[in-house]
Design brief:
With about 300 residues, the protein is an alpha/beta fold. The chain is built from 12 helices and 8 strands. An 8-stranded parallel β-sheet has the order 1-8-7-6-5-4-3-2.
């Protein structure tokens, strides 16, 4: 039986690491993994949106996970997002993830074509069958996938004993309560409402901006669990302001995050992959503001 305690806490979404040519940089992947471990996070979510998965090949995604696991196995929880827009590639990544010993695999629904619930269930169950000894987590992100998880679909998926929960990135926190009522563990997805998600029953959070300020989210989680709600709200509000600033440039948010990390002395993850927009000159003063905001918040709360 799965020990669900390993899923409780702050799980940053891992960032894609590229070299100067735009290829996967294994050394940077390992360095970033070690850095995350040192920050005291519960685990890492590898190969998702923050990892730019839809712009990478199956071989590249395998390479990233192999290098994460070389550093992280047995030290922190690893959830590997393995969805591709076809079942065969998804199953290949599922088998590969299980062979490396990840704690769980996760998947968005198929995108572009709007499939009926029974087809989505088969897609998820087929990839789960390719990793029969590994926990499976549904990734609900309707604003990007174009498909919303429903109670009937979740009930159908929970017939599979490997399906343990939902990474919930829909905006209504009410959804967290609905999935939890069906017996699923739930991870809060929208970083801007982690405190609300935890109050509604999420066991922890998986987030794309956690990685640029992990200390703040770890402290926010601790405060909620300790009942220090006033402080947790202050941290959440400051995290939101930092997110708004990260999103205010010309460059893609993940490019802003990577440059912010680099300027704070964290591992150099390179840029982002096209068609994501790279930073331009006017973005760098905004990055400086982000660095100052993060450092001030860490000094204040941590």
């Amino acid at each position: 039986m799965t020990d669900l305690k390993k899923y409780q806490g702050i799980i940053p979404a891992f960032y894609a690491c590229y070299d100067e040519k735009g290829d996967i940089n294994p050394a940077a992947v390992r360095e970033l993994t070690r850095w995350f471990i040192d920050q005291g996070v519960q685990g890492l979510y590898v190969g998702g949106s923050s990892g730019e998965c839809i712009y990478q090949s199956v071989a590249e995604r395998k390479l990233v996970l192999e290098n994460v696991m070389a550093e992280a196995k047995g030290k922190i929880t690893i959830i590997a997002h393995i969805a591709c827009n076809n079942t065969a590639d998804s199953q290949e990544l599922a088998r590969h993830a299980e062979s490396l010993g990840v704690d769980a695999i996760a998947s968005i629904p198929p995108i572009y074509f709007k499939l009926p619930p029974y087809a989505i269930a088969k897609y998820w169950n087929d990839m789960s069958a390719a990793a029969p000894n590994t926990d499976f987590i549904i990734y609900n992100i309707p604003q990007l996938a174009g498909v919303s998880l429903s109670v009937p679909l979740l009930k159908e998926m929970l017939k599979n004993p490997r399906v343990i929960g939902v990474k919930n990135s829909s905006m209504p926190t009410q959804d967290i309560q609905m999935w939890a009522d069906e017996g699923a563990i739930v991870f809060n997805g929208p970083d801007e409402q982690l405190i609300s998600g935890l109050v509604m029953g999420a066991v922890g959070g998986i987030g794309g901006t956690y990685g640029v300020m992990p200390q703040l989210y770890v402290e926010l989680y601790r405060c909620v669990k300790a009942g220090e709600m006033a402080k947790s709200l202050e941290i959440q509000n400051d995290c939101c302001r930092i997110i708004y600033k990260l999103c205010s440039g010309h460059g893609n948010m993940y490019g802003m995050i990577k440059e912010t990390l680099r300027r704070m002395g964290s591992p150099d993850c390179g840029s982002v992959r096209a068609p994501l927009a790279e930073l331009i000159e006017s973005d760098y003063p905004i990055v400086d503001e982000c660095v100052a905001m993060i450092q001030a918040a860490i000094a204040k709360y941590c």
